[in-house]
Here is the input.
Amino acid sequence: MTKPMQQPVFSADMSLACGRMAHGEDVAAHYHDFGQLRYALSGVLVTITETGSWMAPANRITWVPPFQVHSSRAYGEADVRLLNVPAPLSDQFPAESSVFVASALMREACLALLKDQEPVDSPRSLLLLGVVATELARAPRDLLRVPEPVDRRLKAVTSLLHADPANPATLAELGHRTGASERTLSRLFSTELSMSFHQWRTLLRIQRALLALDQGASVTETAMELGWANPSSFIDAFTEVVGETPGRYRATARAVHG
Here is the structure.
């Protein structure tokens, strides 16, 4: 899913933006001096930074603070909305990139801001932006950031798993393929990514499961295609990380898509 970050470019475009992105379409690495709320009415928008990737289907919203280098990729036919927030107003939002569960009120306030395209400092825009910030402050933060390593040995392993998340290979087997010992790789996962190999692979698989469920795959199909031994173990892992069962998540995603 992730690609090496290209040399980022500065974007000064403060215009409100929206548009459709084809499945697999990329937006190259860039940054700007304003913050940005990123919402997909349909499909899934993945935001990638130098430290990890965040996935936001239609019931999630992504916040990118000013000067954060990021790129994007669409999964499914993504209908994307970008709400730019001037730097002086960005203090209302988190200091780091994050994904939040989007309440109906948050979504409607964002869409109203984008639809009317009033100046961002107009009384109505400031009021609506305050609603978004208030809703964001009380919204559950999505923990599904998949961190990305810097060490080349660890990158070699994570690249194999990005290409095939269902790969059942042990860390020792992956190390043999990439020329690093299991002990070294285990240490790197702990020190560089602050999690175990098993935790990282589980996060990656659950992130991909969100894509599959959002695009209509059944819970059983998703579990089997992503390497779980049975649907029950998938449901347990998914619920622990996402906070709801995959069946409920799938139903909610379908309702949001209409």
Summary: The chain has two domains: 9-138, 149-257. The chain is about 45% helix and 25% strand.
